[in-house]
């Protein structure tokens, strides 16, 4: 359903799996025990006037609405790719930092609404919503946009469209959800390390090691195998998708072989080489003989090893990383997009 994150399931994402299981389980439990739902309401008036500061934690943890829980779970499942890319500790630091920043931003935005519109915001939607909305910032900036199809010949459907639709559905579920959304997007500045926020809000190493020893064995997903339902030939749809992926790989290999046979044009002296800033324009224009041979996509240069290491840190195997870099002419963005869809 989400083409952005591939088909590796919950492998190497113990934190995302734990959030899905624990938070969804608490929502179901509170639905069956409605007398305890009052303890988890996100009531700003009770926080400010009655000093019930604990509501800042309880009210921003568990969703009391099943529809919000479903949309949040879909988004967490989709955004699990960032746990593979960043690592569990850095991903946990991102969630922790944005959770704290959004708590302050919620209060400031509520005061701004009261000052501008003379309307007091008493209660906000509950759940781990602000950190989820903050994940749209790295999703928009770092995940490549790949067109899938077009509707009526004008509207392009990409691999990211469904994620935005789920986010829009979550946005329209509560009258003040826009405030939570804005708070999450503002706290998403943590991704760019604005004001050195990543040095202030982070998960300590000792806590990460404790979680790795205690929690990771409970929530670590099994490694996908060829015998699993995600393997070869499980269903007709999967076989059709595999054939399409094979055609895409062949196209990439053909483009790479053509690029190897064509020498690179050399920039003229004293002229700014725009191809250095726009990689997609590198193979355009007249072909000129080049004294330098085209580097092999799988050489042992430090740049190639760095690209392989970056892909391995995202959770892909070294063999898959080498194959993707070879097929994409050492283009890290194309290789990442290729691996995310397989």
UniProtKB/TrEMBL annotation:
Family annotation (SMART domains): UBA
Listed transmembrane segments: 15-33, 94-117, 123-141
Pfam families recorded: UBA (PF00627)
Top-level taxon of origin: Eukaryota
Renumbered residue ranges of the record's region Disordered: 284-304
Signal peptide start-end: none
Membrane topology according to the record: Multi-pass membrane protein
Subcellular location: Membrane
Residue stretches making up the UBA domain: 302-342
Molecular function terms from GO: serine-type endopeptidase activity
InterPro entries to which the protein is assigned, alphabetical: Rhomboid-like_sf (IPR035952), UBA (IPR015940), UBA-like_sf (IPR009060), UBA_UBAC2 (IPR041928)
Gene Ontology CC entries for this record: membrane
Keywords assigned by UniProt, alphabetized: Membrane, Transmembrane, Transmembrane helix
PANTHER family in UniProt: RHOMBOID-RELATED PROTEIN (PTHR43066), UBIQUITIN-ASSOCIATED DOMAIN-CONTAINING PROTEIN 2 (PTHR43066:SF21)
Protein name: UBA domain containing 2
Protein's organism: Gadus morhua
């Amino acid at each position: 359903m989400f083409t952005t994150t591939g088909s590796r399931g919950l492998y190497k994402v113990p934190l995302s799996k734990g959030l899905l299981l624990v938070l969804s389980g608490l929502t179901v439990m509170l639905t069956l025990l409605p007398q305890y739902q009052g303890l988890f309401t996100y009531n700003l008036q009770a926080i400010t006037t009655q000093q019930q500061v604990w509501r800042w934690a309880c009210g921003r943890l568990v969703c009391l609405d099943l529809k919000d829980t479903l949309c949040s779970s879909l988004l967490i499942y989709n955004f699990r790719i960032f746990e593979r890319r960043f690592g569990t500790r850095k991903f946990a630091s991102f969630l922790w930092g944005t959770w704290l920043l959004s708590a302050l931003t919620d209060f400031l935005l509520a005061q701004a609404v009261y000052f501008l519109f003379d309307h007091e915001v008493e209660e906000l939607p509950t759940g781990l919503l602000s950190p989820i909305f903050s994940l749209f910032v790295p999703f928009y900036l770092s995940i490549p946009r790949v067109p899938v199809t077009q509707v009526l010949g004008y509207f392009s459907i990409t691999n990211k469209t469904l994620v935005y639709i789920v986010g829009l559905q979550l946005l329209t579920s509560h009258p003040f959800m826009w405030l939570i959304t804005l708070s999450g997007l503002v706290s998403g500045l943590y991704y760019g390390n604005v004001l050195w926020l990543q040095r202030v809000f982070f998960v300590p190493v000792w806590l990460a090691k404790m979680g790795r020893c205690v929690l990771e064995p409970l929530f670590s997903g099994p490694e996908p195998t060829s015998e699993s339902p995600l393997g070869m030939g499980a269903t007709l749809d999967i076989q059709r998708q595999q054939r399409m992926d094979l055609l895409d790989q062949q196209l990439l290999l053909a483009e790479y072989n053509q690029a190897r046979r064509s020498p690179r044009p050399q920039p003229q002296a004293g002229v700014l080489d725009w191809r250095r800033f726009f990689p997609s324009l590198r193979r355009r224009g007249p072909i000129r003989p080049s004294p330098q041979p085209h580097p092999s996509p799988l050489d042992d240069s430090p740049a190639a090893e760095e690209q392989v290491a970056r892909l391995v840190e995202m959770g892909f195997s070294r063999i898959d990383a080498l194959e993707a870099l070879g097929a994409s002419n050492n283009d890290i963005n194309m290789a990442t997009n290729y691996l995310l869809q397989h």
